[in-house]
Each structure stands twice: as structure tokens, then as C-alpha cells.
Amino acid sequence: EIARRDHTIAWKSAEIERLTAEIARLRRVQYAARSEKMDPDQRALFDETMAADLAAVETQLQALQAPASAATPAPTPRPAPRRAPLPAELPRVETRHEPESCTCAQCGAALVAIGEHVSEKLDCKPLEFFVRREVYPQYACRSCETVTAVSVPPAIIDRGIAAPGLLAQVAVSKYLDHLPLYRQEAIYARSGVTLGRTTLAEWIGAIGVALQPLVDALRRELLNRPVLHADETPVAQLDPGRGQTKRAYLFAYAAAAGEDAADAPPIVLFDYCASRSGQHAQRFLGDWRGRLMVDGFSGYNVLFTSGIIELGCWAHARRKFHDLHQASGSPVAQEALTRIAALYRVEAAARDLTAEDRKAYRQEHAAPLLHAMKVWLDALRPTVPGASGTAKAIDYTLRRWSALTRYLEDGACPIG
Length: 416
Description:
Elements: H1 2-33, H2 40-65, E1 139-140, E2 147-148, H3 164-175, H4 181-190, H5 197-222, E3 227-239, E4 244-255, E5 267-273, H6 279-285, E6 291-294, E7 309-312, H7 314-328, H8 331-349, H9 355-380, H10 389-399, H11 401-405
Parallel strand pairs: 3-6, 6-7
Antiparallel strand pairs: 1-2, 3-4, 4-5
């Protein structure tokens, strides 16, 4: 018995040592990976996997350490992290666990309730389908035989089986959760519902047609705004027949909330385009003439010869110096970031002013900062090697200086 106990203790000690070393190794890998550049999706997948691995090893370690002997003092427990309370608005499904008998097992007297222990855990149901049955009673007049019934509202898909809630589920899963239709097909099959991917694709097409009037209305409202933002981002698109993907683009057009957000709420519209050509922005904006904030992509230049006023985005200029500072710790980048931060502090102070008062405030507080930055960049540029990252960041800012400082002329224009 003693030998078996000693063997168990030795095994547990070795296992605890091994698991402790494994936890330390995983934390080193996790810390080292934070300094690596990584695609955001890969980063999320790595973080999830690493967290799961750490949790599994720590659980094993805690299980081994739990039955500490009386002779060995238990280590001082670390304070457990405070768990956020479960959302109060969620419904509570209560299950009561009563003793088998309400009489005392020792003396047979009746038990009296003195309190209760309550444990709450977050739970969920798998995707739950149901059939929505709409009934329209018909009534007739005995005198004149007039038949009365509530008219059936138009459906998104005529004679289709999908209710609006299911259509919304399919669309959100595809476009927000990035679940391809073939995966949704398998998910729904697990709930006992057969929905082929061809059917799901037809539904997606019908949803697009049904939403088009809303998109058109949003576009009309967007083009009534005096200041817009435009940017474009590449997306990989399947290229049937070639077995690979091709590069397409989503052009994003945004209008910030106006002085009265209730009358002019923020709007963002995406326009799918097969290429990055500036003709797509021309087509989308049409006869609109206003102030357009862009990042310097040359495809927009043709717009600024036809009455549209170009605004530069200080967030894009800042990103150049931020990336440089992250990569090399450049003191020049740090100085630029400090100067740009001062411009944003001016904007924060003027946030609640009217457009006219904001313009005056910028002229008084931001204009001197911009003048000093221009003098500093002009003096610095000849001292910087032409192919360096510092030169590229400075050149981007100086090349777009007129557009970047144009927000001083109109209090309704954003800084970026």
C-alpha cells in the first residue's frame, strides 16, 4: 500500500512538472506570435486554438493538484478572475432539484426549507425550425353574399416555403458569418430539414431583388449629402471553370451623421466591381458634386476635374507613420504621430460645435499646428534616403498636403 502510494505521488509530481512546463511553453509561443504580422483571420484562428490548448492543459493540471494531502500545505490560491454577470435580459429556464423525501433521514421529522443554492450557466438551443401557419378566415354576408377576408400580404418568394425569418437566417449566415451555402445545407440537415444549396442560392437571389429598392433609396439619400468618404478593398471571387479565384473590388461609400443625426443618419453602401478602375466611382456618383474624402488612389483623380472637391484623410496619413513606427521604432514616425494626435485633440474639442464655429476653432488651433508640421516635413525630407519607409510616409503626406488641409476651409468636413 505504501509503495503504491509513493508511486502515485511520484507519478503526480512528474505529471505536474510536465504540465507546468507545457503551460510555460504554450505561453511563450503565444507571446512570441503577438509580435508577428498575421492575416486577421489566421490571427483569430491561432488565438482560439492557443486558448483552447492552454485551457485543456490547465484543466489537467488543476485536476492533479486538487486532492492535496493534509501533510503538504496547499499553495496559496490565485484570486479567480471575476466573471461578467450573465445578461439579465436573457430568459431564465428554471429546473428545481428537490430531495427525494421531505422527511429527515436521521429522525423522520418533517424538513423545513431554510434557503436554496442557485447556480446559473449559459446554455443555448441548436437551430430550431418550426412551421409558421398563417390562417385567413373568410366571412360572408347572408344578406348580400359579400365575402370579407384579410388580404394576403405579398411574399418575398411567391409560393415559396421560406418565411422572412428563415430568409434572414440564410442571408446573415452567408454574408455576416461567412458560411457558404453548402455548409448551411449540412447544418440544416442536422436539424432534420432538407434545404439544398441550389434552393438556398435561389433564395439569396430573391432576397437581393427584394432589397434593391432599399439600396436604391439609401443611394439617393447618400448622394444628397455634401460630404462623402470613398474607399475600395479587394475581395477574392471564385472564377468558375478556371479552378481558382480572381480579384474583384468592393467600393465603399459612406456618409457620416449630420449635425442632426435623426435627420441625417450615417449611411454606408458597398458597390461590387470587377476591377479597381475609376470609372466605377464615376458611374456610382453620377451627377453628385460635393466633397469626397479618399486615400490618394489615382483612380479617383478624374472625379476632381469635374467639380468634386478632394479631401485628404489624416487617418490614412497617420497609418503610414504608425506602420513605420511599429516596424522600426522610428523617432521620426513617433514625432509625426505626436503631431497628428494634437490635430485630433483639436477635433475632439470642437466636436459639439456648429460647422461655422468649428471652422473658426480649427483656424485658431489646428492651422498653426499644420503650418509647423509642414515646415518640419519640408526640412526633414532632404535628409531622408529616398527609398526608405520614412521617405514614403513623408512623401505621401506632402503629396496630399492640399487635400489633407482642406478641412480647415469648411467646418462640416471631417479630418478623416
